[in-house]
Amino acid sequence: MDLSTIRERILATPLVKKLPAAMHQRFAQALLWISETKEVARTQNLIEQGEKHSDQGVLILEGMVRVKTEDGVSKTIEAPDILGEIQLFTPGRARTATVEVVVGGQILAFAWTALATECRGVFNDDEMRTLKEAIYSSAWTREKGLFDKLAKK
Fold first, then answer.
1. Which domains occur in the chain, in start order?
2. Closest CA to 149 of 85, 75, 86, 77
């Protein structure tokens, strides 16, 4: 996949769409700087439920994944989308689900701390707050009720 297509896929993610237009290109550039493109195959797990203190984020460029929780809830997510942000809000930064590749393709793998560092270099304080709110909103939208469930633990 060429660089312009990867950039288009980043810009098409629900997370980026939550950001003001003035932030789109800078976010895409920051993500491109710190990520690595990888091929993924069907049945490969990208994220393991219960894993703690993981910093890995994944942007699905092409393909499809299934997100499975311990209580049997399963949902399918198609490219493009960014995953792995929910652990940023959980106790012990624990993974809340397993993410399994259903249709192989390509991903961008990155570290959330590296992304935060890169973004601090291109966004001002207000924009960083906006980015954090967008990440939280993205997690909340995908996992409605998850934060209530975590608060009860």
1. 3-143 (2.60.120.10)
2. 86
Question: Which residues 6+ apart lie within 8 Å of 39 measured at CB?
Answer: 104, 105, 106
- Answer yes or no: is pLDDT of 152 > 70: no
Give the three-state DSSP class for 41.
coil
Alpha-carbon distances, residue 33 vs 14, 26, 118, 121, 122 (angstroms): 20, 11, 8, 12, 12
pLDDT digits (tens, 9 = 90+) for 50-64: 788 788 999 999 999
Report DSSP letters for 106-139, one per residue.
EEEEEEHHHHHHHHHHHS-HHHHHHHHHHHHHHH
pTM > 0.70? yes
Cα distance between residue 101 and residue 60, in whole Å: 10
